[in-house]
Design goal:
By secondary structure, this protein is α/β, with parallel strands linked by helices. The strands form six sheets. A seven-stranded mixed beta sheet has the order 14-15-16-13-12-18-19, with helices on both faces. It has a six-stranded mixed beta sheet with strand order 9-8-7-10-11-21, with helices on both faces. A three-stranded antiparallel beta sheet has the order 5-6-22, with no helix packed on it. Helix 4 runs antiparallel to helix 6 and helix 6 runs parallel beside helix 7. The longest helix has 21 residues. The N and C termini lie far apart (about 50 Å). Bound molecules: adenosine-5'-diphosphate (ADP). Adenosine-5'-diphosphate binds next to helix 9 and helix 10.
């Protein structure tokens, strides 16, 4: 009954825009009183002035999370699950408004924004169910009069730090497992996109997440380090879950070492996408379009290096170029938009630097290769670059934009070597119809995720995460709760 009434609560977009921190179940300004502007990347217009938090706000959030922890830890799993189910229902009920909010602050077309809402919500539903399936073990008896068992307990307070490219999904897939496990949470969303995360707090509160169990502070880029520093040092924060760049991930690991916290790091990728000569080329083009141009190329699983076998290179390039040249670039408010603006000026500058460097080193732009200044400051044309080579910047660094560099290869060993020739190892993709090759290559690729004849790999039921400098631990799936739990061994002696 309770859940059904809550499910019906639908908010206007304006009601979902909050500009204060959410601490201990209340909306509060930053202790300093400072604010910073969140802008629409399509127009540069200010959407809201949100709290620019610092040390004191982070500490207040941790204090609230510490107070809330014992009761949330001891709540029955089914009661935690019920709250998460409610939160899920509210997110789904408000999917249109949340999708519009994502488009507004992040720039992705509305269909993608709404798609992200449903994707993020799927993690909440998944972990609502997993909350009731946290089993331990009875260990087979080793000695008479002695019983041994292993139980799983929530690790404690979790700090969640998230990026801007999925303003809802990234934070949802950290908060949901944390709350499911019985942890309490302090969080900081990215400075470019704090509004969607703040809107989620409204819905979490509505859903019955107790005061203090979930706290969120926003901070400007300048203050991000200072705002988070207290969590790194505070021994009460037992875990950090971070999605973002590799340098910041390494920094968090280093700086939190003093209190030996658990860490889950989802860091940068430099995904290879290999097209073998036995591939279904139409399927490969479709898969590449889906995986490369999601969010305008601004995802950590977007293919960054596309390797095409020599004998099919020209045909693949032609098929791809036709599709890429037809992409509609427009602000998210245009219902036909397929690619929106990039997140900010820094992002466009990086794309431009990579493309110019590639062209200087001999690449040819088959389409695109320039800014679309007529649309606004943050737009870049979907681009295909032929004749890419390993000495180009875009081969070593993630471009994070709508640029497809095509590298040529002759044999399988060369393709695998090139694909693995990076410190990163998040997603990888290949297209082939040869069963033995599929088996070989999927084992040889150094990546946490392999898309085989498939470009859409994300799912709440699958373990998402990387190897090498793309980080460690997994989000989603039956493994996704492990990082929020610690195992306690109970040894009971002197039994009859
Ligand atoms: P990007 O380059 O894509 O913005 P970042 O890794 O810089 O990725 O940012 C991801 C998240 O990490 C954001 O929430 C950002 O504010 C935060 N962040 C960036 N630098 C620091 C830092 N030095 N300490 C703590 N958090 C940081």
């Amino acid at each position: 009954m309770f859940m059904e009434t809550i499910m019906m609560k639908r908010f206007e977009l304006s009601e979902l825009i909050r500009s204060d921190n959410f601490i201990d179940g209340k909306w509060v300004t930053a202790a300093s009183g400072k604010r910073f502007a969140v802008t629409d990347p399509a127009t540069g217009k200010v959407i809201a002035q949100v709290a620019d938090s610092g040390y004191a706000d982070a500490r207040a959030a941790t204090d609230a999370a510490a107070r809330a922890f014992p009761a949330w830890r001891d709540a029955l799993p089914k009661d935690r699950a019920a709250v998460l189910h409610c939160w899920h229902a509210l997110i789904v009920e408000n999917a249109d408004a949340l999708g519009r909010l994502i488009s507004l602050e992040q720039g992705k077309p509305f269909a993608e924004g709404r798609g992200e809402v449903m994707y993020g919500a799927s993690y909440v539903a998944w972990f609502a169910e997993e909350a009731t399936r946290i089993y331990g073990d009875i260990i087979p008896q080793q000695q008479r009069g002695k019983r041994m068992s292993a139980i799983k307990e929530p690790v404690g307070i979790v700090a969640a730090i998230t990026p801007w490219n999925f303003p809802l999904a990234m934070i949802a897939r950290k908060i949901a497992p944390a709350l499911a496990a019985g942890c309490t949470v302090v969080g900081k969303p990215a400075e470019d996109t704090p509004l969607t995360a703040l809107a989620l707090m409204i819905l979490a509160h509505e859903a019955g997440v107790p005061a203090g169990a979930l706290n969120l502070i926003s901070a400007s880029r300048e203050n991000a380090q200072a705002a988070v520093a207290d969590w790194l040092e505070d021994g009460r924060v037992r875990k950090i879950t971070f999605t973002g760049s590799t340098p910041v991930g390494k920094y968090l690991a280093r700086e939190s070492a003093g209190t030996l916290k658990k860490l889950s790091l989802e860091l940068g990728g430099n995904a290879p996408f290999i097209v073998f000569d036995d591939a279904d080329l139409d399927a490969a083009v479709a898969g590449l379009m889906a995986s490369k141009f999601r969010n305008g190329g601004q995802t950590c699983v977007c293919p960054n290096r596309v390797y095409v076998q020599s004998s099919v290179y020209d045909r693949f390039a032609a098929l791809l170029t036709k599709r890429v040249a037809a992409l509609k670039v427009a602000p998210a408010t245009d219902p036909e938009a397929q690619i929106g603006p990039m997140i900010n000026a820094r992002a466009v500058e990086k794309i431009e630097r990579h493309v110019n460097d590639a062209i200087r080193h001999g690449a040819r732009a088959l389409t695109g290769g320039k800014r679309l200044s007529e649309l606004g400051a943050n737009y870049y044309a979907p681009t295909v670059l032929a004749d890419a080579t390993p000495d180009m910047q875009l081969s070593c660094e993630e471009t994070f934009g709508p640029v497809v560099p095509l590298f040529r290869f002759n044999d399988e060993a060369q393709a695998v070597r090139a694909a693995n020739d990076t410190p990163f190892g998040l997603a990888s993709y290949f297209y082939s119809q040869d069963a033995r090759r599929i088996d070989r290559v999927s084992r040889l690729l150094e990546a946490g995720i392999v898309g085989i004849n498939e470009g859409a790999i994300s799912s709440e039921a699958a373990p998402f995460g990387g190897v090498k400098e793309s980080g460690y631990e997994r989000e989603g799936s039956k493994y996704g709760l492990d990082d929020y739990l610690s195992i306690k061994y109970l040894c009971q002696g002197n039994l009859a």
